[in-house]
Amino acid sequence: MRPLGGPGVYGGGGGCGGGSVGAVDTARQLDGWGFRVLPARGKRVALATWEEWRDQPTGPMLATWFSGRGERYNFWVMCGRPSGVVVLDVDNDETLAWFRRQDGVAALLDQTCCVRTAKGWHFYFRINADQVVDSRSQHEVVQGVTISWDLRAEGTGVVVPPSTHESGVRYEWIRMPETVVAWDDFERLGRDTQAVAEVQSVVGARRRSQLAKLLVNPAIEGGRNDWLTRIAGHLAKHVPHEDAYLALCAMVNRELAVPLEEEEWRRTISSVWNAENRKDVEPSAETGWLTEKDDCLWTLCQVKSGEESVEVWRPWADFNLIARGVIEMDGDQQYVVDVVTKTKTVRTLLSKKELGEWRRLQIWLAGFGATVAPPLEEHRKAHMIERATRLHRWLMSQSPAHFRAIDSLGFHDGVGFVTHEGVITSGGLQGHGGVMLDPRLRDRTPYRYGFVAETEALDVLREVLTFHDSTVTAVFGAWWVATLLKPQIDRLVSVWPFMALEAPSESGKTTGFFSLMLQLAGSYHGQGEYTLPVLRDRAGAHRSGIVWIDDVSDPTGVLDLLRQASSGGSRSKKAQDRTSEETVRLVASIVLSGEGLGSLGAEKALIDRAIQLEIPPVKGRMSLHDGSRAQWDDILALRARYPDPDGLTAVAGSIVQAVLQHADGVHSLPTLREGSGRHADKVAILLTGARILAELLGDVGLLTRVEEWCRDQEDIGQENYLTMTILPRLLRDHGVPRSPMNDQPAFVDAEGVVWFSEQRVADAWSLYRGLTARDRQLGSLPSIRAQRRALGIDGDGKVFPVGPRKVGTTWQRRYQAMTAAGVTRVSSRVIQRTGMEIDIPQSQPELGGVTPA
Questions:
Q1: Are residues 661 and 518 in the same domain?
Q2: Maximum separation of any 2 CA atoms in the chain, in Å
């Protein structure tokens, strides 16, 4: 992690999320770090007092306080002896620079736990169990510099991430609490800092501004955005006109060895300007003549008061719109807004297309139970502006910052592994910074990512991998690890395999190994039966997530979606306005489970994309800790350590962080691919995942088991629907004919070679009832010819007599044989698929009546 005070640490925004992933698990995570946590409204403690809980742990009450029912609370940590920390609250850049003037202090600030607040920073320091530190503060102007800081100690507390400040800014971890510097070390150097600062002020050393220091130390390529953001922040405070500000920022950007692209630097500096120059403005034409009061929008009115007209404010709408940001999405610039009514607040998207047309905007508002009802006495100045335009101006007057849109969870280049809590990197959890999640992801992505010590998380994963057959856990675990790195691997392969579990009852599917592995991947929803629209949204919402479709005895309804999801395809649906369409790219990994997945074997495209595992029963498995007890006792014990509703998602963030530390392992995938095609990609992905998992856990046996399983998987080459479905069914239904007599669509000769007539096969297939449109299309004559060519069989074939035509003559039909190079084994597989046994002599008798084409 970059040291505090380095390029860009103070820029950006965002936060660690929290609300939608469950407040209870966040509170428990804070409790696990040793903090004593209380609920708070804003910065004020609610439901409890410091005195009441200073001598007893709050852990048992967290589920009650933060259960999510009713009001949502911030997280307030008790300082002093209860939590073993004191917190230095620094309010501005000048104060921080004042503290950092002595190198020793700067080094400690760069090491200890730190939080970005609405106005500045919180620095955490460790105290001894019996150490009493008094709170103190300093707020004064020294030599023209505003010094403002507080020490939160005994009897006080601080709000911690992912809480939200009353201004709407979310608190954000800059450095997590794993490292906390001793307060005694800082206090000793702090005394020296004050003395040094006073001497420097006398000799004029403080006249060199922070801006000057930045300008003479341009950033290298990796820190350009952060460096420019900090300089822009200084310029925005002191340059009154935006055109001059933009010109200066352009000059600064050109001074970089590798300047930022124009679009990128303009987006960065525009956000800084908007944030710095946002003021509480009086209602005017620029605000749409609107103001906010009591969660409603009010407007200016003219009413009679005796002989005169006076201006008063009256309700204009029964809601308020708060602009949280502007993002580019689906080719349109959209506002991220909070729709605030008397009963609820909903965060959603509002496109400029909807803002531009009053009828569409009315429909959009009605979806939230919100209406506009202007008063009759409305001021003529306000009345002259169209209603949709007024709302647009109201949003623009709030100067929302521009963010990079994130339309799915999971890994994004240049950002990291995006979650609701924040962004996970190999270094830990960070805030969302300059990115913003599509608010619709809240409903589509039931994922949580908690953090514990890495050793604890890996121990949990290691134990879960013992809860089933060793080959099953190794293969599933290899695929599971690969899904966490799917965006990195996707660019190296043509398809992404789905997991097909042939899982009978008592196979540990819903409560054992597989369910626990999903939790370790962050999912707290588990398996489910979805409608196709819900499945589409789930599959398009998490790049590194797993969607589990359970109890599919006949997966025909989801086969098309599986094909698209495995190749990164997309599906369209009606947009929120019910008139336009939006496209959902299917990016998640799919698990399909059931007791009968036979229809997967009907299509080669699905076989190539499927990792098919036959799951043995777990009944009778014994504990590895105590051979006299069932392994189910171990599962129950683990679940008790991480109870619902969190389950093992409590360690999922640490698992992701550990996997990201081994992400370079994906570069070995090309060397593991043998051959080409979808089957080769599938095997290479499994082997890559197995290598990473083995390295992560230090268990080479995992890799060995996956390698052995992969060697047993047969590549069916260019087989297709003709050889896998049509010919086996026709042969079986006709009793596996041994000659073409009676105009058979296909037959098996004495050497076990399958012969078929394209025209007769197409005719016979068309007579079957209950075929889907796709089945009929694949069984049409043009499709059969295309599939025959794909098998490498030429179209000449041989002519066979097929029955009497009239006295002295016979009908003849042309048949093709599966004897081309690489097709010989296909004949035997087609016969096996009929499920019938036939006698094939060692020597072949002559076939009478056969004439060359």
A1: yes
A2: 126
**Per-residue CA distances from 37 to 43, 46, 562 (Å):** 13, 11, 45
Total-model pTM: 0.56
Select from 94, 99, 183, 91 the least CA-distant residue to 134. Answer: 183
- We report the CATH number of the domain holding residue 625 as 3.40.50.300
678-684 long-range CB contacts below 8 Å, 24 or more apart? Answer: 678/494, 678/495, 678/605, 678/608, 678/609, 679/608, 679/713, 679/715, 679/716, 680/715, 681/493, 681/494, 681/495, 681/497, 682/495, 682/497, 682/608, 682/609, 682/611, 683/710, 683/713, 684/493
In a 10 Å sphere around its CB, with 0-12 CB exposed, 13-18 middle and 19+ buried, how is residue 526 labelled? Answer: middle
Q: Contact 522/547 with Cβ under 8 angstroms?
A: no
Whether 332 maps to a domain, the answer reads yes
547, 410 Cβ separation under 8 angstroms: no
Which ranges in 204-261 belong to alpha helices (H)? 210-215, 224-238, 242-254
Q: Please indicate, yes or no, whether residues 654 and 784 belong to a single structural domain of this protein.
A: no
d(CA 692, CA 670): 15
683 found inside a domain:
yes
**CA pair distance 410, 652, nearest whole angstrom:** 13
Task: Assign 399 to helix, strand or coil.
Answer: coil
Residue appearing with tokens 């096969």:
761
Summarize pLDDT for 640-696 with one digit per residue, the tens. Answer: 888 877 789 999 999 999 999 999 999 989 888 887 778 888 899 999 999 999 999
Total domains in the fold of the chain: 5
Residue range(s) defining the domain that contains residue 804 = 722-852
